[in-house]
Design goal:
78 residues; alpha+beta; Glutaredoxin; 3 helices; 4 strands; globular
């Protein structure tokens, strides 16, 4: 099971990231746990200074933009 974290303050971009993550995981038939990290102090512990960011299994994969569903699918399969 993949652990996916969306790091952001809950803005529209963050909501878009959650939507794309859910679509990518569903398309892959992937079992996953989605965690939304909204506290800025917690976000900073990941080394992210420009949210939104996406972490998979605790490793930041992208920050400062919302990746497409296709990009997220690639991240989830490696």
């Amino acid at each position: 099971m993949k652990k996916i974290q969306v790091l952001g303050t809950g803005c529209q971009e963050c909501k878009g990231m959650v939507k794309n993550v859910e679509a990518a995981a569903k398309a892959l038939g992937l079992e996953y746990e989605l965690e939304k990290i909204t506290d800025i102090t917690d976000i900073l512990t990941y080394g992210v200074v420009l949210p939104p960011a996406l972490a998979i299994d605790g490793k930041v994969k992208v920050a400062g933009r919302v990746p497409s569903t296709e990009e997220i699918k690639e991240m989830l399969t490696f």
